[in-house]
Amino acid sequence: MGKDGEKRWFIIESHSSHYLQPSGGPGALIKAVVFDGKNYDLWQKAIHTALEAKNKLGFIDRTLKRSEPNENEEFSEYHAWDMANSMICS
User: pTM for this structure?
Assistant: First the structure.
């Protein structure tokens, strides 16, 4: 908690993997290659490149771990991870 007893907020910087671009809503497409059941290698490379460019690859390859909830923060890294992960999965 802060000095005055109020809960703190986790701040998401624009370079953070948790940062969501304004244009990155659930309807935004990140792939130019449509998976057709036969082109996995091409599709996987396109998805990997797109997620890496958006700084979101860590959610998929599990290098960015979900933190534990922080009771001292109203909005914590835990919540930010959930939001970003949900956007990627949508």
Answer: 0.70
